[in-house]
Amino acid sequence: MTEVNETALNELVGRVLGDLGGAVSVPLVRIGDALGLYRTLKEIGPVKADELADASGCAPRYVREWLAAQAASGYVHHERGLFSLTPEQAFVFAEPDSPVNLIGAFDTAAAMVENQPKVQSAFKTGRGVAWGDQAGCMFCAVARLFRPGYVNALVQDWLPALDGVADRLKTGAKVADVGCGHGLSTILMAQAFPNSRFVGYDFHPGSIAAASAHAQAHGLTNLHFEVGRAQDFDGRDFDLITCFDCLHDMGDPKAAAAHIRKALKEGGV
Predict the structure, then answer these.
(1) Co-location of 78 and 166 in the same domain
(2) Whose CA, among 14, 142, 189, 269, lies 20 to 30 Å from 166?
(3) Based on the number of CB atoms within 10 Å of its own CB, is 219 exposed (0-12), middle (13-18) or buried (19 or more)?
(4) In the predicted model, what is the mean pLDDT of the chain?
């Protein structure tokens, strides 16, 4: 056996074990979210495991094991036989509009694991895996991952940071949201600025269908969604064009940026 540096080996093993601990937490966190365990614990805690099981309609044995694992990870608080969520834990796991809700990150990690065969094949062929070909509901997971940032900063901070843009949107502007995915960013802007008109573009038909359904559910009439690629969508003369968390993932970001620039009216942003 090759001689190794014991200190370096122990440090490496420690890092790997930390990563493995995070990896095995992914399904447990998603179970807790899907079954409403975090939400229920926030509402009724501190409680015993059996009480949480009863309130959530789950089997006590499974809930006890789940709570023990969550407490060991520091995701749930345990004291004197009772389980609860601290305000900080609730911010991360039980409050959808929290700026640090990270459930979507766990969903994204799960989708990446499911996507392994496609990426593994790409290692041999040298070809990429198109966004529309991702395994699982990667699109749902990514939308959920970025939603807290949009909810807490898009209208409040990001748009006002652009000189004159918020005032123009209040008066009435023509806006494109390119690479809109499930349309959460587009919908938030449309809600905040009813005098402006918005169109969301995404090349993935499934995402556009989800975005359209979300807009309809919110009763919004000042926006619509279209299937279109960033480098050749049809719209022109926009006052504002946005790209949120997507330009760096596009197949040809340079062509996309050039087309977006041409689609702006003079003086557009």
Answers:
(1) no
(2) 142
(3) exposed
(4) 94
